[in-house]
Amino acid sequence: DREGERETVYICLCNGMTDAQISAAVAAGASRPKEVYCACGGRAQCGNCTATILTMIRAGGDSAASAGPAA
Q1: What is the pLDDT along the chain (71 residues), one digit of tens a residue?
Q2: 50 phi and psi, to 5 degrees?
Q3: Which residue of 3, 17, 23, 50 is 20 to 30 Å from 69, comparing CA positions?
């Protein structure tokens, strides 16, 4: 029974970063993808997640579930 549980959405597969981790980093003040990577203990690698991270930053850290995970 998983009713009420929030689904984990991986945004950055290279670093294993989830939407919740990225949202927390943005809420804590990260305003650039590089700052998000640093706050989450990762680094830029393939770059597929950068557009989604930017979208989340511009939205103020809201969940990127509607933007979708990086492919």
Answers
A1: 567 777 899 999 999 999 999 999 999 999 999 999 999 999 999 999 999 999 999 998 666 444 454 44
A2: -60, -45
A3: 3
26/36 Cα distance (integer angstroms): 7
Predicted model pTM: 0.78
Say how far apart CA 46 and CA 66 lie, in whole Å: 22
Residues 6+ apart with CB under 8 A from 7: 65
C-alpha neighbours within 13 Å on the C-beta side of residue 47:
0
> Structure tokens of 26?
């943005």
Q: Report the C-alpha gap between 38 and 36 in whole angstroms.
A: 5
The answer to whether the CB of 71 falls within 8 A of the CB of 37 is no
Distance CA 62, CA 31 (A): 13
